[in-house]
Design a protein that fits this description.
It contains 8 helices and 2 strands, in the order ααβαααααβα. It has helices at 3-16, 22-35, 43-46, 50-72, 76-86, 90-98, 110-117, 127-145, and strands at 38-39, 122-123. The protein has a two-stranded parallel ribbon.
Length: 147
């Protein structure tokens, strides 16, 4: 699932649940979203695809913008819980740079194996699921910001 969807989901969890209860719920939400159909292409094509890179860079920009907006509006619970919902993907970033910028995952790390295995439904058409999810969550996020 795109970082934007994880960030929006976490921010909304932070808007409705108090800390510290919101933190494990947001962390778990990451894996629920990753188990749903979402955007992805085969690992061996990711480093070669300009479309994939464009989607990833746009996603990073939008997710960071959401984080900055939560800071500007001083919605600290939304900010903290949004980052918590995204946090399991940080290990992929670290792995990407450690493995010479390739996303071919072969590891004995049980957490990474679990995280990789639940993403059974990564498909190019999953971008439609991603966009639909953003279209549903973004207005809810804006409403909570303005409260």
């Amino acid at each position: 699932m795109l970082a934007t969807n994880h960030a929006l989901s976490g921010a909304l969890i932070g808007a409705f649940l108090p800390l510290p209860l919101a933190l494990p719920v947001a962390f778990a939400s990451h894996f629920v979203l990753d188990a749903l159909p979402h955007y992805g292409i085969p690992l061996d094509q990711r480093n070669k695809s300009s479309t994939y890179r464009a989607i990833v860079y746009t996603d990073i920009f939008v997710a960071l913008s959401i984080a900055m907006i939560a800071i500007v509006f001083r919605k600290w619970n939304m900010e903290i819980v949004g980052w918590t919902a995204y946090s399991p993907d940080v290990i992929w970033v670290q792995h990407y740079y450690k493995q010479n910028r390739t996303l071919h995952i072969e590891t004995k790390n049980k957490f990474m194996e679990f995280h990789r295995k639940i993403q059974l439904f990564e498909r190019p058409w999953g971008i439609l699921v991603e966009i639909t999810t953003i279209a549903v969550l973004l207005p809810l996020f804006v409403v909570q910001l303005l409260k």
